[in-house]
Write the C-alpha cells for this entry.
Amino acid sequence: MPGKADSSAKQAVRQKLEDLYLAGVTHLPKAVGQKRVVGAPGPRPGAKSAGKAVVPAARPAAASREDRQVQLDVLREQVAGCTRCEELARTRTQTVFGVGNPQARLCFFGEAPGADEDRQGEPFVGRAGQLLNRIIEACGLKREEVYILNAIKCRPPENRTPLPQEVANCRGYLEGQLEIIRPEFICCLGAVAAQMLLETDTTIGRLRGKFHERRGSQVICTYHPAYLLRNPAAKKDVWEDMKLLLAKMGLQVPVSKAQ
C-alpha cells in the first residue's frame, strides 16, 4: 500500500495542477528534454476561463538558463498572437512580453505597457523605466540580472487602468512566465500591480514595508517609478523598501546609498 509520502506527493501534484487550471492553463505541453505531464484537470462546468497560456511542464528547479529561455520564447510567441482582448489587440503596436534573466532571483512587476513600451516592445523603457534602471543600479544590480514584466502584455488606450477582464485574459500568460522563471522575490511597482498579483484591494500604503508570500515567492510592494516622477519625496520610501528587499535577499546595501 502507498505510504504517507506517496500520498503527500500526489496531493501536492494535484494542488499544482489545480492552481494552473485556475490560472487558465488547460494543458501542459512537453517541455525541452522532459516527459509530457498528463492528468491536468479538465474544464469544470460553469467555470469562467482566463487567458489560456500554454506553459511548459514541471521541470527540475535547476533547469538551465537556455532551457528556460526556450520556454519563455514559446510563450512569447503565443502572447504575440493573442486576440482575447479585442480592443487591446486592435489598438496595440505590438505585445510587450518581458525582458531579463530567465533564471532571475528577482522580478520587477508592473501594471501594463505605456506608449514607449508599446513602440519598442520592451517593458519600462520610458522615463519611468529610466528611473527604475537607476533604482536597480542603486541596489548594486544590473537590469540584465533581474526580470521585468507587466501584468498585461498590451498597452491600454490612453494608458488607462486595465479592465478586470483584460487582467483575467492575460493571467495565464503571467502565471506561465512566473512558473518558468520561478523567482525567489517579486517587487510589485505600484498599487495596481500589487493588487493584481496579490489579488487584494488593500492600499499600497498598507502593503508596503513587509513581505507577502505568493506561491513560493516573497513579494514586496513599493511605489511605481511613474509616481516618483510626480512625487520625488516618495523616493526615500522606495529606498527603504529596497533596503528591506536587499536584506531579505542576503545582499549588502551599497554604502553610498546606505549613508
